[in-house]
Amino acid sequence: MKYLAPAFLWALVILWLCAIPGQDIPNWKLLSFDKAGHAFIFFTLTILLFWGFFKQKPDSFFQRYFLPASILIAVIYGGATELMQQFWFENRKADILDFFANSIGAFAALAVYFFLLKKKLFRH
Questions:
Q1: Using an 8 Å Cβ cutoff, are 46 and 105 in contact?
Q2: What Å distances lie between residue 118 and 8, 26, 69, 106, 115, CA to CA?
Q3: Residue 26 has pLDDT above 90, yes or no
Q4: What is the DSSP code (8-state) at residue 57?
Q5: Do 26 and 94 touch, CB atoms closer than 8 A?
Q6: For residue 104, which phi and psi values (nearest 5 degrees)?
Q7: What's the CA gap between 42 and 49, in Å, rounded?
Q8: What is the Cα–Cα distance from 106 to 97, expressed in whole angstroms?
Q9: How many Å apart are CA 97 and CA 38, to the nearest integer?
């Protein structure tokens, strides 16, 4: 479980960011980094989940299926945060494009894993 601590902490950061009241979010007129920001935070979460699950006890469920488990958790959490914004957080609303950006970030992490990380960091 200790290897999942960074992913859990990052998930809490995401929750905190999603809970910021709408009126307190800065609005950049020149460039909007909103969707890129969503993709980045869920890309990071997914990489942290990859690492945490990969480092679990050998032949455990999550170690064996660390890629699909990480993607599934990140996508579900991305959807859950959007629903929390709609129903629980002040002056926030769900946005399907934010959910897509969250999911793109998770799947981008999968691409980075296959093209850059697989042979270097995730060795048995």
A1: yes
A2: 22, 37, 16, 16, 7
A3: no
A4: S
A5: no
A6: -60, -40
A7: 10
A8: 14
A9: 10
Predicted pLDDT at 3: 86
Could you identify the residue written with the tokens 């959910």? Answer: 99
Q: Is the pLDDT of residue 46 over 90?
A: yes
**Orientation angle between helical segments 66-87 and 34-54, nearest 10 degrees:** 140
**Amino acid at residue number 5:** A
pLDDT at residue number 57: 85
User: How much is the pTM?
Assistant: 0.83
Rounded-to-integer distance, Cα 122 and Cα 120, Å = 6
Q: How far apart are CA 121 and CA 57, in angstroms?
A: 17
CB 62 within 8 A of CB 51: no
The overall average pLDDT reported for the chain is: 85
Residue corresponding to tokens 């990489």: 47
Residue bearing tokens 């793109």: 104
User: pLDDT tens for residues 85-111?
Assistant: 999 887 888 889 999 999 999 999 999
